Amino acid sequence: MSKPSTEATAHVSRKVIGLAVAGAVGGFLFGFDSSVVNGAVDAMKAQFALGEAVTGFAVAVALLGCAVGAYTAGRVADRYGRIPAMKLGAVLFLVSAVGTGLSFGVWDLIFWRLVGGLGIGLASVIAPAYISEISPRHVRGRLASLQQLAITTGIFAALLSDAVLSNSAGGAGSEFWLGIEAWRWMFIACAVPAAVYGLIAFRLPESPHFLVLNGKEDNAREVFERLIPGDDVERHIREIRESIQEDKLSSRKGSLRGKRFGLQPVVWIGIILSVLQQFVGINVIFYYSTTLWKAVGFHEKDSLTISVATSITNILVTLVAIALVDRVGRRPILLTGSIGMALSLGVMALAFSSATGSGANISLPGGWGPAALIAANVFVVSFGASWGPLVWVLLGEIFPSRIRARALGLAAAAQWIANFAVTLSFPVMAAGSLPLTYAMYAAFAAASFFFVMFKVPETNGMSLEQAETLFVPKGRNVPPLPTTAGDSH
Length: 489
Fold this sequence. Notes:
Blueprint: H1 6-23, H2 25-35, H3 37-47, H4 52-80, H5 82-101, H6 106-134, H7 140-144, H8 146-169, H9 182-188, H10 191-201, H11 208-213, H12 217-227, H13 233-250, H14 265-279, H15 282-295, H16 300-328, H17 330-353, H18 368-384, H19 387-397, H20 404-432, H21 434-455, H22 464-469
């Protein structure tokens, strides 16, 4: 089969990139809604007179909602489609933004944070699944990485809006527009991107993988003809159909179950990747960085500025990952990132072992303060250029098509539970021993290196159907899928 013309390829790329960017808007909301609490946490704590444990729970409770939303997303997406799941997520984001901003007590606030978490969980599953299923193989890594770029951009937007609102009001706890405190406006601001996400969802086509899975091949052809005019549409339909049939033969219809501790091995790989991504402690930087830098001597205004600068760094290194993922491959980038994270976290553990004082009066003597700040940013660079985007890339391409949404949902749920554990435990662990806390995160970063080394194969340049076969248990005979010259999906 002849390759499509350069003009057709460019046209296809523009359409697919547009859909991938639109799908990734859920990632923006994911990053915004999960990080906006950074600038509000101290004002919340003061207004509602919260102790450390309740403060940690108020911050982390959204993550429980994320776990439930992620687990439910797979079932919603498989039954109703990827697009209806996006619309539901947008509604949850919108309701949560207004409810949290107007909360009248801590338990009211916790409830609306939980609702927002449901929306984040849905978005964390649907975006990578949708992007992977509409992307040509030769750019799938880069397009799937848009999810992480959107997340990091959302984090930046949240921290920037926090800083602007706090500085304009004279403090996060000070009154601003309409006599409402600045920290409340931080949450209400999320209503704007939530509404945009909902409007975008009404204009996106359904995933062709979902359409074939549900016997709507004519609709899938229409989507492929819009996305890849001039390419072999029938081959793409056939590959999806063969992948579905192959999965039927291997196990019960759509089953996640297997002999490896009750789940298929590939599902465990996705779960462990997700848990390790969180157990390195990345969200401590984005949820508690303002409090952290205030604790080592920076004023609130300076701490918010540092947090914004860190989020910009995160965006820039994610762009580096997007540029390299389909050229260098998944494994080398993940392994390099693990080394960088382990070393930088080790330096942070050493820096805080030299701290004097306790609680809000902690300080780092000599050059340890700048060393901790540099190490924290090296950690963000190492994570943002590797484990941040690439875990989402792998989760979007390693699961068989019949279980992709549900398996991705289970892996994302595990990720959110791990995130909850880290977020909830950090205030208590930090009060006990910051050096030990960062040393523990460093140990998980080292463990992530060995897990990738021995358990994660390279999937670069493969179709989704071919990548799935790399994770088939040894001893099972799976014939390779036929390929033709000029394959692009």
